[in-house]
Amino acid sequence: MRIRILQGVEEAKKAVGTAVVIDVFRAFSLECYLFASGAERILPVGAVETAKQLKEAHPEYTLIGERHGKIIPGFDLGNSPAQMVMSMIKDKTVVHTTSAGTQGIVAASIGADEVLTGSLVNARAVANYIFKKNPDEVSIICMGVMGVEQSPEDTLCGEYIKSLLTGGTVNMEEELKAIRNHKEGKKFFDPELQDIFPAKDFEMCTDVDRFDMVLKAVKIDDDVYETVVVE
Question: Which residues lie below 8 Å from residue 103, measured CB to CB, with a gap of 6+?
């Protein structure tokens, strides 16, 4: 098994074999919480316009998404697990678009055989799935900030999954402390940003191995994917 760690949207286009697209803050942490909260279907899409078209065709769908962290105008919810509204999620089809994570799915699908999503909340489950499948190639893609700038939480998640596959070790407690003090962690504790980045999001997204859940992105149309729970 050859394991490569890639960074951002451009490197995601180089993914081969089994790809894991990582977005800890917050896209793919959120999708785990959405399924755990009873969402019926999740449809990740790349473009805001695609999401709006789906909503127009299916008014009952819930639109969730952000750009630059902020809820997209006209959407039902932003990208925050702490701000989920159960009546908008349970038994609903959720259309999800974000600045980094969902863009990575689209990019990785170019060359990968299958695309999984990953975050700290389900990292061990993802590693166990890959270990059992034992593919020749594994591409771990850390989406980072806006898909263009490396971020410590996504890189940590990638290194953690790799360590689980190779028998290495990562001091998660120390690494998470460092992330809390990094700009990408500090924004969740800025009083002026609590409506966009609530402090609870940090705790929910760094709850390591909370879910025994593996999520796979399956293409169903141009720019439209479905996230399915792998049995």
Answer: 9, 12, 46, 143, 147
- pLDDT of the residue at 93: 98
Q: Which helix (H) or strand (E) holds 102?
A: helix 101-108
Cross-strand partners of 229: 215
φ/ψ region of 34 (left if φ > 0, alpha if ψ in -120 to 50, else beta) reads alpha
CA of residue 192 relative to chain centroid, distance:
25
CB-facing half-sphere around the CA of 160: CA atoms within 13 A: 27
pLDDT in tens, 201-222: 999 999 999 999 999 999 998 8
Task: Report DSSP letters for 25-63, one per residue.
Answer: TTHHHHHHHHHHTTBSEEEEBS-HHHHHHHHHH-TTSEE
Contact 225, 51 (CB under 8 A): no
Fold of 2-146+154-229: putative 2-phosphosulfolactate phosphatase (3.90.1560)
What is the strand order of the sheet 17-22 is part of?
A: 2-7, 137-142, 17-22, 112-118, 215-221, 224-229, 41-44, 93-97, 62-67, 70-71
Q: What is the pLDDT of residues 18-74, one digit of tens each?
A: 999 999 999 999 999 999 999 999 999 999 999 999 999 999 999 999 999 999 999
Angle at 94 between CA 92 and CA 98, to 5 degrees: 165
